[in-house]
């Protein structure tokens, strides 16, 4: 999703996401805006005048994690960003003009004493606080390649925009391979869109054809195994 990934040794993925889209990431708590400077994946990024804030829920207390952050600087002066995890400083990320910087931080079991971890990226020098992607891994003991255990570590979530004026995107994460059904109905009960396909474990961003639909209220139905959710979407022009 972010790039070609090398999973840290003896680790399994928990959360992975690309940033910088019109619909904020499920994990984003605060951003001021987003930028898309080009077609490359790293040219789309979240941005904050002062800071960016993300929350990672459903973590296991007493476990160790690895947090990998991806930065890109399209400006002609360096960026210096302060990293904080649950209010404690985790050093700085320095990104030279026109370059990509990957920063990795270990999160010890002493830090994860609850189910929620908060990441803050604060601007110290440069135009904005930015971030174009992240990866969150849980460290496992005993070594070896994880297979089914790795799939179960990815958490289920669903993020649907409530108001759309142009293109709309649905984001979801599934822990195991399975059939996913997405349907959109208008207020008269007429089906306007349907997607039914099998997905592997992971986090996905699916475009919805809302820009081709008339202004009004629609209902999105999402099904994955025992999960069935209904969301209302308002399309405006």
pLDDT < 50 stretches? 1-7, 143-152
Element string (H = helix, E = strand): EEEEEEEEEEEEHEEEEEEEE
Spatial strand arrangement across the major sheet: 2-5-10-7-8
First-to-last CA distance: 30 Å
Comma- or semicolon-separated keywords:
20 strands; 5-stranded mixed β-sheet; disordered N terminus; 5-stranded antiparallel β-sheet; Jelly Rolls; mainly beta; Immunoglobulin-like; single chain; 1 helix; 237 residues
Structure explained in plain terms:
This protein has 237 residues and is mainly beta. It has two domains: 11-152, Jelly Rolls (Sandwich), CATH 2.60.120; 156-235, Sandwich (Immunoglobulin-like), CATH 2.60.40.2550. The chain is 3% helix and 55% strand. Strands 2-5-10-7-8 form a five-stranded antiparallel beta sheet, with no helix packed on it. The radius of gyration is 19 Å and the shape is globular. Residues 1-7 and 143-152 have low confidence and may be disordered.
Quick structural overview:
The protein is mostly beta strands and 237 residues long. Helix content is 3%, strand content 55%. It has one helix at 148-153, and strands at 11-18, 28-30, 33-36, 44-48, 51-56, 65-72, 79-85, 88-95, 100-107, 117-125, 129-131, 133-139, 157-159, 163-164, 168-174, 178-186, 191-199, 202-208, 216-224, 227-235.
